[in-house]
UniProtKB/TrEMBL annotation:
The keyword rRNA-binding does not apply. Homooctamer; dimer of tetramers. The gene is fbp. It comes from Thermofilum pendens (strain DSM 2475 / Hrk 5). Dihydroxyacetone phosphate binds at H18, K133, R266, D287. This is Fructose-1,6-bisphosphate aldolase/phosphatase. It catalyses: beta-D-fructose 1,6-bisphosphate = D-glyceraldehyde 3-phosphate + dihydroxyacetone phosphate; beta-D-fructose 1,6-bisphosphate + H2O = beta-D-fructose 6-phosphate + phosphate.
Length: 368
């Protein structure tokens, strides 16, 4: 049976600033998705949040980029904005809804979206990851470790189904172009690109032996769509695990190191990506640190069995402690790079007005 998994998210209002999604937003979203399940549009769904981002995980048989599914998500974001965020004056009510009317596909309208369609295997473990206060390129490091680094993923060496490697589809979010690179042969070319996560973003990963889809991320930049600051595009990721794909534990292994990502306060700082359980899926210190939640499901005829709250485990306590230490270390740099992002990556900046104000006071520098 061919199943589509769609994960669509938006920030449509935060509680106490940009900390967390209001439970009433989730409640109403659940009600609407339940109705869509009753009409048969959806097979199943799961609603959750990370930080101020409302997450709609849906399964169905309509394929990717389906107008009915995208409209369902769009209408829910609009309705919860009107019925909950605005009356309660939640912070940034409807902030990710950049267009007035739905035009067939939610991509390019503000919300983030990751979708994959596949033939459900005899047993189909699905892992979904959602992060807040960072950008889609934050997955680059994780995806490389999971699908191309044998020091992370033992199966690349010892599982015959994975031994020939994976193909990475990388999007240049500035030029709106993409390129497919094959690992392990083109690993260095791949790293040359995705080491710049603000520009080159891994969109999909395919298994080389049979072309099966293994992973898909949301890869947009709201600021580039809107042409003005509307927040970082807090990203989502779907990964198929086991039996010829990386094991659940190999996928999670990549999250044990809280690598540095762009985002955090005002979308303008570098900080560690901290894996947290759902109960800690809120952004506090300096509006962060950037957080990721991971949920595991077993699909059965498109129904979602689960979730397992994957980071709700002592095995990730050391990672969280390390993230806290790194957060503290980075914070001590205050307004200095590399804690503060470079000028081209900052979402907020006063630099042009400061330069304008000081223009007349700049004098030729003495020869060094
Ligand atoms: C980062 C983020 C927050 C805000 C910050 C300032 O993605 O959403 O860190 O940038 O709280 O928000 P405003 O300018 O709305 O007061
Ligand atoms: Mg927000
Ligand atoms: Mg957010």
């Amino acid at each position: 049976m061919r199943i589509t998994v769609s994960l669509i998210k938006a920030d449509v209002g935060g509680l106490a600033g940009h900390v967390v999604v209001h439970p009433k937003l989730e409640e109403l979203a659940r009600k609407r998705l339940e109705e869509a399940r009753e009409t048969g549009l959806l097979i199943d769904f799961y609603v959750y949040h990370v930080g101020d981002d409302l997450q709609l995980l849906m399964t169905h048989t309509k394929g990717e980029n389906n107008a009915e599914i995208h409209k369902l998500a769009w209408d829910i974001f609009v309705e919860v904005t009107e019925k909950v965020s605005k009356p309660l004056k939640l912070y940034g009510a409807g902030q990710d809804l950049l267009k007035d009317t739905f035009s067939g596909n939610i991509k390019g309208m503000g919300p983030g979206c990751a979708e994959m369609e596949f033939e459900e295997r005899r047993s189909e473990p699905i892992l979904v990851f959602s992060a807040d206060k960072t950008e889609p390129g934050a997955w680059n490091y994780k995806l490389y470790r999971i699908f191309a680094d044998p020091f992370n993923t033992a199966g690349l060496i010892i599982d015959p189904a994975m031994h020939s490697g994976f193909i990475f589809e990388v999007v240049d979010v500035y030029e709106h172009k993409s390129v497919k690179l094959s690992t392990p042969e083109e690993s260095y070319d791949l790293l040359a690109l995705i080491g710049t996560p603000g520009r080159y973003v891994v969109k999909r990963v395919y298994r080389k032996s049979d072309g099966e889809i293994a992973a898909v991320s949301s890869a947009t930049r709201l600021s580039l769509i809107a042409g003005r600051y509307v927040g970082k595009d807090d990203p989502v990721l779907i990964i198929r695990a086991q039996h010829g794909f990386p094991a659940t534990g190999e996928v999670l292994e990549a999250f044990a190191f809280p690598h540095l990502v762009a985002g955090w306060m005002r979308g303008s700082h570098t900080g560690p990506l901290m894996p947290v359980p759902l109960r800690y899926a809120q952004c506090t210190r300096f509006d962060g640190p950037p957080r990721v939640v991971g949920l595991g499901f077993q699909l059965h005829d498109g129904r979602l069995e689960g979730p397992v709250d994957l980071f709700d485990d002592p095995a990730f306590e050391m990672t969280r402690r390390m993230a806290e230490e790194v957060a503290d270390y980075m914070r001590r740099h205050g307004p200095f790079m590399p804690h503060r992002l470079g000028p081209e990556e900052m979402e907020y900046t006063t630099l042009p007005s400061v330069l304008e104000k000081l223009k007349a006071r700049f004098v030729p520098a003495e020869a060094e």
